[in-house]
Amino acid sequence: MSLAHAADGAALHYQVRGSGAPLLLLAGQSNSHRWWEPVLDRFAAAFTTVVMDWRGTGDSDRPDTDTYSTENFARDAVAVLDHAGIGRAHVYGTSMGGRVAQWLAVDHPGRVDRLVLGCTSPGAPHGVERGPAVRKALADPNPAVSRAALLDLMYTPAYVAKHGGPFHTLGDPAMPAHARRRHLRASARHDAWDALPRIAAPTLVVHGTDDDFNPTANAPLIAGRIPGARLLLIPGGRHAYFEEYADEATPPVLAFLNAQTADGPSA
User: Fold this and answer.
1) pLDDT per position as a tens digit, 87-143
2) Distance CA 93, CA 97 (A)
3) What is this structure's pTM?
């Protein structure tokens, strides 16, 4: 792992693997770079792949300050790219990472080549929120119950039974409570609806058809707001479609990212 520093001095740990054109992978809320572990080799085989620990997670600093927002997470990502000596990269963000990727493409257009937005939302008030039953299950005071609910939202029962874990999408267990609260607030306050039409990067929106954690209906909303965006739905996929359905989801994502070879660099 390497160490970058954000504008406020917060240490941001990141890892670079592979070779080829740069690709930045952005993880979900309350998760470190380990979110991508099950599929990282596939991307590193084709790209110089960068994964990072959000502030509050992994080996990055965990300040208890008002610096947690999807816009600021995007600035943190730019600090990582700067430290890695990468001027422009493809960006693939999933869940909260997709929210952050939206701001990267809007506020830092010169740093984003091709953009993939997975299982994410444009944010309130235009995004489709998870249902009350899901919210109730996730808020259950019994940690075993809430964890089981989250696991079911991420993967199909068949996948869980076959693989048994560990499942790195369930959150960084070492996060302090203040960082968890601030991550939740940052994701909940995300609203890029008015900004999405300003995204100029070629964009692919990907979502599992059975995602109740971040409802699938958000995918066409986002694709409809970004000029020229393509939409890819993964049949049967839940929130962690990129892991469970990697054989279905990763090849078209790689094909989309590699299309720059034929199209030329993005504007």
Assistant:
1) 999 999 999 999 999 999 999 999 999 999 999 999 999 999 999 999 999 999 999
2) 4
3) 0.95
pLDDT band at 1 (very low <50, low <70, confident <90, very high): confident
DSSP letter (8 states) at residue 82: H
- Give the end-to-end CA distance of the chain in Å, rounded to a whole number: 31
Contact 19, 48 (CB under 8 A): yes
Contact 91, 115 (CB under 8 A): yes
CA gap 248, 113 in Å, rounded:
23
Residue labelled with tokens 């960006």: 91
Neighbouring residues of 68: CB distance < 8 A, sequence distance ≥ 6: 55, 56, 179, 182, 183, 185, 186
81 token code pair = 């790219």
- Angle at CA 111, nearest 5°, toward 108 and 116? 95
Residue pair 218/226 in contact by the 8 Å Cβ criterion: no
Q: Is 73 helix (H, G, I), strand (E, B) or coil?
A: helix
166 is written with which tokens?
């560990």
Say if residues 115 and 23 touch (Cβ distance below 8 Å).
no
What type of residue is 137? Answer: A
Task: Quote the percentage of the chain above a pLDDT of 90.
Answer: 96
Residue 164 has a pLDDT of 87
CB count, 10 Å around CB of 2?
13
Shortest CA distance to 237 belongs to which of 95, 131, 134?
Answer: 95
Express the helix, strand and coil content of the chain in percent, nearest 5 each: 45, 20, 40
Nearest by Cα to 97 from 33, 36, 29, 32 = 29
Sign of the dihedral defined by the CA atoms of residues 149, 154, 159, 163, in that order: negative
Backbone angles phi, psi at 92, to 5 degrees: -125, 110
